[in-house]
Amino acid sequence: MWNAESSRWQSGDKWNKPTYNQWGREGRESGNWWPQESTGASSYGSESVPAPKPSFPASFRSDATFIDSTAVGSGNHQFYRLVQPTDWSRKANLAGRPVEDIRVHEMCFRGLNEFSLRMLSEGRFQSLVWTRSAAESVLTTQLLKAIRDAKIDIDSVAVECLKQSGVAIPDKHKQSSQFMAALVDLLVSEMKSKMPKTATSHTEDELARAKAKLAQAGLTLTPQKRKAEEVDASADAAGSSPSTRVMKADASDASRKKCKTADGSSAAEEVRSLLKGKPKVSLKDCRPSAVTNESVDKWLTSLKPQYKGKYRKLTKHVKHVVEILTERSDKNEIRAAAVVFGLNPNFAARMNITNLSKCIAVAKFQAA
Question: 285 Cβ partners below 8 Å, 6+ apart?
Answer without folding.
Answer: 342
